[in-house]
Amino acid sequence: MKVGNSAGLRELIMNYVATSSAVTRIGSIDADSPPEDLRDTVLSLITHGYAIVKMTSMAQRAVWSALDEISRTLEDMRADFCFPDRTDGFLPKGGEHAKYTDNVDLCDRFCYWHKHRSLHTGHPFVEALAYQNIAKSETELSSFAQRLIDGLWDFFRNDDHVSIRDSSYLQLCLYESSYHEDGRTYLQDRHEDGHLITLIKPTRDGLVIFLNDREVSVHLADDEVIVITGSLLTMLSDGRIPTMYHAVRKPKMELARSSLVYFAIPDLRHSYTTLLGKDRINIAEFADESHRAFGNTPLI
Ligand SMILES: [Fe+2]
Fold first, then answer.
1. Which residues are close to ligand 1, an ion, with C-beta < 5 A?
2. Distance separating alpha carbons of residues 177 and 191, to the nearest angstrom
3. Distance from the CA of 204 to the center of ligand 1, in angstroms?
4. Using one digit for the tens of pLDDT, what is the confidence trace for 29-41?
5. Domain residues for 150?
6. Disulfide-capable partner of 106 in 98, 141, 147, 187 (CB 3.0 to 4.6 Å)?
7. Centroid of ligand 1 to alpha carbon of 247 (angstroms)
């Protein structure tokens, strides 16, 4: 992969920080809130590959309710709302595995794609509080992720419009304590997601990120979400934005854990220009291969 012009990146950062004053929130901002400013978050992603952001009360309600309600969904409801042929709905443990090892992820999943929502009509689960809060969470997180991606593209003064909502998805991971296995250090092995960015809200500790190959535990307050970068963003930035590798560590106690994750994927029907070099590249094949490497169905 070509490495971009570091002098150019330095200059962009100098111009950018000069006017920065940070207020970053996921979710709808009410009239009394200070104006949103994503610049510190954008800079943190560019320089470190991660950022921690706050949710508004509305976003917190949707996200925490979704995480709470999903685990109460009964077995027959889960079986009715299961669409593995499009990586959608309830997907039991075993369907997804680590990208670089054969270890399955020790969790059940629920995937929600905005583009598939019309296919859900008529299923009883659509009436459930869990589904409604998942849909609300997707609205809040997709809107924030889009603003963040627009902010990244603005930073590099790139005029491409990268639209994500109809190609991205939300996933809830339910790590039951009974799924723990002796001999496994991680419930989900070290990997990177292969997308642009990923937003993660876990219910408890366990998420680790690898900063310069050093494992660091992520501890978040109730209203916080971590944003991490994926290799698609690294590729689109001519190698300048780092890819954040991460994993889920098995807790010492047998505790259940869940997380709500938003994977931001660009519209793969278009080609884009790289952020620094401004080279035209087609990323569809790379994105698709990366997504299928986890055991998922194709993106294209
Ligand atoms: Fe991941």
1. 193
2. 22
3. 16
4. 444 555 567 889 9
5. 6-292
6. 187
7. 7
